[in-house]
Amino acid sequence: MRLAAPIPLYGPPGIADRLAHFLTNTSTRSPIESAFAVHDLHDGHRARVGPLTLTSRAVAHGMPAFAVRVEAAGASLVYSGDTAPCANLTTLADGCDALLCEAESAHAPAGGEPPVHHTPEEAGDTATAARARRLIITHVGRFLSPEQAMARAATRFSGRIDYAAAGSSFSIG
């Protein structure tokens, strides 16, 4: 699928200003921004991009963050993004063909702040609660190998588990 400019870009509220700052590091707007049609996400946001239907839900990350469900031709993939386990992610992933979920080795940030990531076991719990057919783990922390993360997730999810290594691709549905 080839998209013509401007390319749709969906992100948390204020993404256009953050992108502008990132591109120029000044108050002057970058002409490259015209390549994007920027849309601020909100909980329950729905969009169509070519044959894809995208639905987002706000998730628990301590700052605005969203998970997305991508559906096309009867198949569905849900990407958790960065989030602690939360009801919105479980609901969004309900019955999905594949849940692409982060699996950090630990989730408690310093200072007693609330967790903002899934552990591998929690990724397995979310996949089980959502009745996902497959779990693909990503964003594995540096203190854990992908094999260890998959083994830990398998203690809580009995379906197929894969690791999203750089350059890998998966058939969904």
UniProtKB/TrEMBL annotation:
<dbReference type="InterPro" id="IPR036866">
    <property type="entry name" value="RibonucZ/Hydroxyglut_hydro"/>
</dbReference>
<protein>
    <recommendedName>
        <fullName>Metallo-beta-lactamase domain-containing protein</fullName>
    </recommendedName>
</protein>
<dbReference type="InterPro" id="IPR001279">
    <property type="entry name" value="Metallo-B-lactamas"/>
</dbReference>
<feature type="domain" description="Metallo-beta-lactamase">
    <location>
        <begin position="7"/>
        <end position="139"/>
    </location>
</feature>
<dbReference type="GO" id="GO:0042781">
    <property type="term" value="F:3'-tRNA processing endoribonuclease activity"/>
</dbReference>
<dbReference type="Pfam" id="PF12706">
    <property type="entry name" value="Lactamase_B_2"/>
</dbReference>
